[in-house]
Amino acid sequence: MRPHYASSIASIPPPKQQQYFEGNRKGEVNELKILVKNTLSEKDDKKKREVVKKVIAYMTSGIDVSKIFPEMCMASYTNDMVQKKMIYLYLTTYAEQNKDLAFMAISTFQKDCKHSDPKIRGFALRNLCSLRFSGAIEYLMPAIRESLSDIDPYVRKTAIMGCVKVYYMQPDYLSNIEEQLYKMISDNDPLVIINAIHALNEILAEEGGMALSKKLVDYLLGRLKEFNEWGQATILDELSKYQPKDDKEMFNIMNLLEERLKHSCSAIVLAVIKVFMNFTKNKPQVYEQVITRVKAPLVTLASISEGNLEIMYTILCHIKFIASKGYNQVFAQDYKCFYCRVDEPTYIKLIKLEILALIACDFNLGDMLNELGEYVTDVDQEISKKSIQALGAIALRLPDLANAIVKQLSSFITLQDYITNEVIIVFKDILRKDPKHIKDCLEIIQSDSVTDQNSKIALIYILGQFGSQIPLAPYILQTFIGAAESVELKHTLLTACLKVFFCRAPEMQEILGKLFYNIMNNENEDIDLQDRAAFYYRALQNNPIELKKLWQNSIKVDKFLEEQNINKEALLFEFNSLSVVYEKSVSKFIKPAEYFNNLRNKEMQDQIQEVQQTTEKPEPVQDGFENDQDIIITNPTIEKNAPNLLEITEQPKQQLVVDNFVLDYRIDVEYFESMWTSLNNGASITRTLARNDIANENAMEQLFNRFRLYNIAAGEEDNVLQMYFYGAHKCQVFFEFEINKNLSTVILNTRSELEDYAYLGQKYVEDFLKQSNLIS
Fold first, then answer.
1. Residue of 670, 686, 668 lying closest to 678 (CA atoms)
2. Which residue has the higher pLDDT, 425 or 12?
3. Which InterPro entries match (predicted)?
4. Which of 280, 716, 717, 721 is least crowded, fewest Cβ atoms below 10 Å from its Cβ?
């Protein structure tokens, strides 16, 4: 029997090892050890680089090259930064796995922390601070304290960030470090100052960050121009937390920062605006003057950022934020700046339409209606719908000017169905707030082009609310009864039918009775809907007059509840932050600091425990050539990425679970055949077939796929189904699966690159076959 190959599997070559070095010969680690020794006295840096590159290539391929650790420490005695970076990568990788090797690495880093080259000093300190295991802290702090007073600014700013790393590892070691960091704000180098500010904000996060005094604020403002753009943005962001002692100090700071509003960097402009807004938030008159003053810089930034659409979108979000807080008239004169351009992406057009809806007023409405009317016929349905929504929003916000908008919306009835659907939804909101427009909406309400679910719900609501004024209301409602509609629509339909019944009982009696019957006698109907229908039915039987009074005592809507909720949350938005872009308060998209602290502590404890387990059972390292084999280990650097099939642990787990296997792993047919014939490590079992109903190719493929094992070939002949599967864990596992319906047997043959994984794979498949009751 020749199995046919699964056509759904694309012929993708299997993952290959990194081929930096030629061949795959055994014993090259020992040869590499000799090569590194021989190049220690080499004066040509290029030749040394090639040797170190080869060591890194072996390491990143999962080959254990830890036996070269002493030679690599000796090779670190070089002034070549390229070699230093590669050697430090090697040292930090193996130092975290073996505590004995870690102290050799620490000694190397400590030596380089006193190097004459400041770049090497800073780089050595950075790598020393990256060692995260128990016992490393006591070696870090002396190096950090010494580097904080280094003559070179690069080393000083590296030492500052090292303080933050130590804080997250063990905060107790940072005694009196805050005082020294405050002193470093007076450093001559701007980058050192910025790093000190960031470090203080991290370390003092529970206290609200760095403390600001008038003296410190004056000092930072005096040196503001010395910083780069991001440094200025950082200082201005800190300044927004400061509260001036009196109005004189406030105006002095604002006058000093006003020239920054002309800066081309959006981060600086937004940061200055945030300072102004926070300073004057309790002074309404001054606050309004600030909004008027910052209008021009914001509009200018939005115009000059057309080449950088992401920045443009952010600026537009902040303009929308200001307009939504009641200062929409500030931007009313510049409404043409927010017209959409043909070449703009959809997300820019959408935010511009929202701004236009906010800044519309009596003097610009005529021109704006013509522009929005053009957008309604846009080929992009999203833009078309948003334009209709903008017209509706203007009508709701400016009720005195709503007549012209309603007439314009009514003119869209002859256009595409999706436009009519959106107009119905907008009319629903307009009529909720101002019922007098019902006569202008009658033509489109009685249109038969309503196809969208939301528009159907809106239409039913209008029919129920104004059933006495719409002649065909009962008969339009009748068309929705018995149709397979959503639960939400049925709830709206039940309410609408009751409302129309109270004003047109003779026409609605039979229709309402049919609706009650369909809801209450349908076993598959929503329980809440049935309970509600039963309640109304009993109320009509007992006291229909009181129920009618209840429906007729409706309250006029001035503001929608959803608008009030949005406005309340808008008060929590923080200017110049993601809150403005996401339109959510910070607590809804940023987890609290405690969450990350707990996460770091857990990660640190796991790493300490892992290192302790490694040191309890150290791997034997042989310097000789007795064992002329390469040792394959699990490399933590590789493990963070996609699984490397060279990573084979010496002692596999006693049980495999589905998360152990690579999701959607793919190999081609030729590779499977070559591996199946070449592998000798295998296991085989025979079990009794318990179920014939799922013993078919499709069912088996779906079952194995759920457990991340994938079909490469299958075939059936004379009631014997034969299938081949594969999966990838730390190594590849291959399966031959046979169901013999004549003998009621199931045979599973498993092969792997390691014998242990063959047996574990066999047990893994056997377990889920038993769970599916396929075998007994």
1. 670
2. 425
3. AP_beta, ARM-like, ARM-type_fold, B-adaptin_app_sub_C, Clathrin/coatomer_adapt-like_N
4. 717
- Count Cβ atoms within 10 A of the Cβ of residue 124 and give its class: 0-12 exposed, 13-18 middle, 19 or more buried: buried
Q: What is the 8-class DSSP label of residue 325?
A: I
What is the sign of the dihedral through the CA atoms of 611, 616, 622 and 628? negative
Contact by Cβ (8 Å): 663, 708: yes
Q: Which of 203, 197, 193, 196 is nearest to 166 (CA)?
A: 203
Q: For residue range 178-190, what is the model confidence (pLDDT) as tens digits? A: 888 999 999 999 9
Residue reference for tokens 């010395």: 226
Rounded Cα distance between 73 and 64, Å, is 16
d(CA 201, CA 197): 6
pTM of the entire structure?
A: 0.70
Return the closest-CA partner of residue 110 out of 156, 79, 73, 70: 73
pLDDT of residue 351: 95
Are 439 and 449 within 8 A, CB to CB?
Answer: no
Residue listed under structure tokens 């314009």 = 408
* pLDDT for 43: 82
Q: Report yes or no: 566 and 520 within 8 Å, Cβ to Cβ.
A: no
Q: Residue 390: which of 423, 344, 367, 438 has the closest Cα?
A: 423
Specify whether the CB–CB gap between 67 and 31 falls below 8 A. Answer: no
Q: CA 293, CA 278: separation in Å to the nearest integer?
A: 15
Contact present, 720 and 1 (Cβ < 8 Å): yes
| pLDDT tens digits, one per residue of 498-528 | 998 988 888 888 988 999 998 888 888 888 9
Pair of tokens at residue 526: 């929503």
Residues 423, 426, 428, 432, CA torsion sign: negative
Q: What is the per-residue pLDDT for 312?
A: 94
- 714 backbone dihedrals φ, ψ, rounded to 5°: -160, 155
Which of 29, 46, 40 has the alpha carbon at shortest distance from 74? Answer: 40
Report whether pLDDT(9) > 70: no
Q: What are phi and psi of 745, to 5 degrees?
A: -125, 155
Which strand (E) or helix (H) includes residue 190? helix 190-203
Instruction: State residue 224's pLDDT score.
Output: 93
The owner of tokens 């030729």 is 670
CB-CB contact of 696 with 737 (8 Å) = no
pLDDT at 617: 45
Query: Is residue 41's pLDDT more than 80?
Result: no
The 3-state secondary structure of 714-772, one letter per residue? EEEECCEEEEEEEEECCCEEEEEEEEECCCCEEEEEEEECCHHHHHHHHHHHHHHHHHC
Whose tokens are 């050697």? That residue is 87
Q: What is the pLDDT of residue 631?
A: 34
Which is it for the CA torsion 420, 422, 425, 430, positive or negative?
negative
Residue 80, Ramachandran bin (φ over 0: left; ψ between -120 and 50: alpha; else beta): beta
CA atoms within a 13 Å half-sphere pointing along the CA-CB vector of 213: 4
Describe the chain by its helix, strand, coil percentages, rounded to 5: 65, 5, 30
Size of the chain, expressed as the number of residues it contains: 776
140 has a pLDDT exceeding 60 = yes
